[in-house]
UniProtKB/TrEMBL annotation:
Keywords: Glycosyltransferase, Transferase. It comes from Colocasia esculenta (Wild taro). Belongs to the UDP-glycosyltransferase family. Its EC number is 2.4.1.-. This is Glycosyltransferase. CDD domains: GT1_Gtf-like. It comes from the Eukaryota. It is an enzyme of class 2 (transferase).
């Protein structure tokens, strides 16, 4: 691939199979596009529900159809159409998918799927690590399989350390335990990790918590794959990647994948289109319709004057939290562009005060072209839930952050933002209006603002270098492609 040589015409055919959430589809679809541009035939397997949503965005179907050797397939997720499919339904989604998907996936591996369109057989799978059945079926069929983990490597590593956290008494959390107590057994993070920074599932008081059992299953599974692909980068997470390398067969940190896709597009001469009126941003993978009016609103704002607020695709917000956030933003005195998904507010719609007051200082969008927004010169701060994709996108754009993490890996990622990369402020567990106001002011123009801005610019530069030919992500991609091709010659995992 580095030499530009295509493997077209060869029998390599990779099936890419994400967990059915936006935060998983986005990086795995980008990997599918990267592999297809690199000469590998790819089938991307979505659920019917998400497939329809993805293709309903103008321009997305045409872009994906233009990727050589990329075909899209979908299967049912086992849920009724009116199921909201949000974070609160995660257990239900996993159970329904575990019950519905395995025979259809097995069929795709054995015969190319129900439509038998003449594609050569699948020779290798890259499956989301959350899909436990994917590795069982691939092993049964003798098809080599790699895992893709969409979380940061540091949270993957913290999940890996759960047995140690239990052994050393950090978990389960006891009533009144000190959340600021340092945690020593997540090697590589000893100097800055506190109990409160562990992924939210670790906050359980029940030693037999089903979420913890699920995570431990995933950890045990991770040795069954040919390797684990991370949407992460050596420069950002080397302190944990070195420990992970001792536990799994191979690691492939190839992030930020949206940057790698751009680099591969340029190196192969396939440059994306779109970005005009009503057209989604060039490499959009959005399941929601992007509101492009916010770009015009940004155009009218001075450089680094706007706070962009987004909590990703699944985080729910209570009305109280929403009001604290609203008042904090208004009191900070800055203009803000705020994504409020239609399904985001759990106990009612947008409160009257927000609806009435937004014209003055803010722009509310149901869904924004986030990568473009972050790249807009008017954006001076990213108030984020510290989802891993959002964090990488913020890093790539060089925008300092205020981190209000909610669940799972977001709690450890926000600590890395504030203490390791020093590109933002972490307000976990303390997010009232006064804290929001103070943190926004700190990032926008406080004492440490210039330092954070310089660190963010520097990490953005490093990220861009890492995806170019010869950079660490690019080299890891080349190694992944070599290993995928090699795996076809050996069916013994
Ligand atoms: C979740 C987790 O938070 C994440 O850490 C995990 O690894 C994957 O699943 P999510 O909570 O949705 O994902 O957040 P994030 O990982 O940040 O992904 C959200 C994606 O939606 C980002 O790529 C972001 O650019 C996109 N987005 C969000 C938009 O395109 N427009 C919006 O308005 C909001």
């Amino acid at each position: 691939m580095g030499s530009g040589q295509k493997t077209w015409g060869t029998p390599h055919h990779v099936l890419i199979f994400p967990f059915p959430f936006q935060g998983h589809i986005t990086p795995m679809l980008k990997l599918a596009e990267v592999l297809s541009l690199s000469g590998i035939r790819v089938t991307f397997l979505n659920t019917h529900h998400n497939h329809r949503r993805l293709l309903s965005s103008p321009g997305v179907g045409a872009r994906l159809a233009s990727r050589p050797g990329l075909r899209l397939r979908s299967i049912p997720d086992g849920l009724p159409e009116d199921n909201p499919r949000g974070l609160t339904e995660a257990t239900e989604i996993i159970a329904a998918f575990d019950a519905t998907a395995p025979p259809l996936y097995r069929d795709l591996l054995s015969s190319g799927g129900a439509d038998h369109d003449g594609a050569p057989p699948v020779t290798c799978v890259v499956a989301d690590g959350l899909l436990r059945f994917a590795v069982d079926v691939a092993e049964e069929m003798g098809v080599p399989i790699f895992a893709f983990r969409t979380c940061s490597s540091s949270s993957f590593w913290a999940f890996h350390c759960i047995p140690k956290l239990i052994e050393t008494g950090v978990m389960p959390f006891q009533d009144g335990c000190d959340l600021d107590e340092p945690v020593a057994c997540v090697l590589g993070t000893e100097s800055f990790l506190r109990r409160r920074d562990l992924p939210s599932f670790c906050r359980t008081k029940d030693s037999d918590d089903p979420n913890i059992r699920f995570l431990m299953d995933l950890t045990e599974n991770s040795t069954r794959y040919r390797g684990v692909v991370f949407n992460s980068a050596e420069f950002a997470e080397s302190i944990v990647l070195s420990h992970i390398r001792g536990k799994v067969r191979s690691t492939y940190p190839i992030g930020p994948l949206h940057g790698l896709l751009q680099a591969v597009e340029h190196s192969t001469g396939a440059v994306g289109d779109g970005g005009g009126d009503g057209i989604p941003s060039s490499d959009s993978t959005s399941l929601w319709q992007e509101d492009r009016a916010c770009m015009e609103w940004l155009d009218a704002r001075p450089t680094a004057s706007v706070v962009y607020v987004s909590f990703g695709s699944v985080v729910p917000l209570g009305k109280e939290q929403l009001l604290e956030l609203w008042h904090g933003l208004v009191n900070s005195g800055y203009h803000f562009l705020w994504v409020v998904r239609p399904d985001m507010i759990v106990d009612g719609g947008v409160p009257a005060v927000v609806a009435a007051g937004r014209e003055e200082r803010g722009f509310l969008a149901e869904w924004a072209p986030q990568q473009e927004v972050l790249g807009h010169p008017a954006v001076g701060c990213f108030l984020t839930h510290s989802g891993w994709n959002s964090t990488l996108e913020g890093m790539w754009a060089g925008v300092p952050m205020v981190c209000w993490p909610f669940v799972s890996d977001q709690l450890i990622t926000s600590r890395f933002v504030s203490e390791v990369w020093r590109i933002g402020v972490d307000i976990k567990d303390t997010c009232d209006r006064a804290v929001v106001e103070k943190a926004v002011r700190e990032v926008m123009a406080g004492e440490r603002s210039a330092q954070m801005r310089a660190a963010a610019a520097s990490i953005s530069k490093t990220a861009r270098e890492s995806v170019e030919v010869g950079g660490s992500a690019f080299k890891n991609l080349e190694r992944l492609i070599r290993d995928i091709i090699k795996s076809i010659n050996s069916s013994t995992p």
